[in-house]
Design brief:
The protein is an alpha+beta fold and about 400 residues long. It is built from seven helices and 23 strands. The chain has a seven-stranded antiparallel beta sheet with strand order 7-6-3-4-5-9-8, covered by helices on one side. The chain starts with 7 loop residues before the first helix and ends with a helix. About 0% of the residues have low confidence.
Length: about 400
């Protein structure tokens, strides 16, 4: 139909959109010659019982292809904008700014990337991706390896400030003016090389989900209230010790009898409101007070597997929404590759890549918000560090 196919996943998705008995033009390349043929899609009028095994096999193959194409090690299609040939165009800029980005690892496992904020060792990265890390380290592109000390977090933007004992680092330079719609940019990999070219597709804005309160659980029915089926990492429930199989009995003093009612109760609050949660664990009834977060999960993923509890965080970021300000880029950035800077064609950062929300939409915290959060977290860390000395003098 005149549209190029990037890869097998793209082909499969296109075929799924076609109707039965629809005539389409297909361009084939054989050696150096192109041929256009007219093809008619088939129908499913044949016996269902006889075709069931074949259909099941096709479904399994389709699922395998989807998983392969969605993996971060997938093959790059010849028509994609990040072919090796295309990426060489960004090579000189990336090389000049290769030390703006670092890798955050735990026991050798890559958790995410980080953005160097100062020459004396301050690094910002995505907070939820290093949640639960045992011994996180910051790895510099040029080979340095440093223990990472956490100084503070901003829950709304999902940013965490790390400090390493290093000097003479290359601090990221941020673009002074707001990023413009259609502005070209690119991302780097853990070694500072250009990895994905992209474009600003939605300018910085307040996300609607940032105004919605969120408890952070997957819920199920229970005869006594609402049973917690899963606790979502980074949510208010997890941070305050709620666990799977706990049964929520009331929110803010109001009883809850089913999942819909729990959602209704939570909607009466705003993000960062304190709320009392009464719950039952085993045969004991307890009450805790917790601080709600913004709604940071994607409600409408393109592919169902993005909502699969067993695959949560593998293909898309768990914390993928609810940012007070964010802009959108057209890039398929995997959760382990967020946290680094988004560079313009002059090597200045438009912001920090913060989350992949779906197959292509990826969100970036804009430069001005990044700098504000950085200064706030640094000031809070300095105040906290000075507090013991002040108390001793008194």
């Amino acid at each position: 139909q005149g549209l190029p196919i990037a890869d097998r996943l793209d082909l499969g998705t296109t075929l799924d959109l076609l109707e039965e008995d629809q005539t389409v033009q297909v361009t084939l390349r054989r050696k150096d010659a192109e041929t256009i043929v007219d093809l008619t899609t088939g129908d499913d009028a044949s016996d269902v019982e006889e075709e069931a095994p074949a259909e099941e096999k096709a479904d399994q193959e389709r699922e395998r292809e989807i998983m392969e194409q969605l993996s971060e090690n997938r093959r790059i299609g010849k028509f994609e904008k990040r072919t090796e040939e295309e990426m060489t165009l960004y090579g000189p800029i990336a090389e000049t700014h290769r030390n703006d980005v670092v890798a955050i690892r735990d026991g050798g496992l890559l958790l995410c990337l980080g953005t160097v904020m100062s020459a004396d060792g301050y690094v910002l990265t995505k907070a939820s991706e290093i949640e639960g890390a045992i011994d996180p380290e910051v790895i510099l592109p040029k080979g340095g390896r440093f223990k990472a000390k956490e100084l503070g977090r901003d829950v709304a933007f999902d940013l965490v400030l790390l400090k390493i004992e290093a000097t003479n680092l290359q601090a990221t330079q941020f673009q002074k003016n707001p990023a413009q719609l259609g502005q070209l940019a690119f991302l780097q990999d853990a070694r500072g090389r250009a990895s994905i070219p992209t474009v600003v597709s939605v300018e910085a804005h307040a996300m609607e989900s940032s105004k919605k309160a969120f408890l952070g659980i997957v819920q199920d029915r229970d005869e006594n209230g609402v049973r917690i089926k899963k606790v979502i990492p980074g949510g208010a429930a997890e941070r305050n010790g709620l666990k799977e199989d706990d049964v929520v009995l009331s929110i803010g003093g109001n009883d809850v009898h089913d999942p819909a009612q729990l959602v209704e109760r939570i909607q009466q609050f705003r993000p960062f409101d304190k709320v009392a949660v009464r719950y039952m664990r085993g045969d004991q009834i307890r009450t805790i007070e917790l601080v709600l977060t913004p709604k940071f999960t994607n409600e409408n993923p393109l592919l169902p597997l993005y909502n699969d509890l067993e695959l949560m965080g593998q293909f898309a970021s768990v914390h993928s929404a609810g940012f007070p300000r964010a802009m959108q880029i057209d890039a398929d950035v995997y959760p382990t590759k967020v946290g680094g800077p988004l560079l313009n064609l002059d090597g200045e950062a438009l912001g920090i890549v913060i989350a992949r929300a779906d197959r292509y939409p990826t969100f970036v915290i804009p430069a001005d918000s990044v700098l504000t959060v950085f200064e706030q977290l640094k000031a809070e860390a300095a105040k906290k560090a000075a507090a013991p000395a002040t108390d001793e003098k008194k």
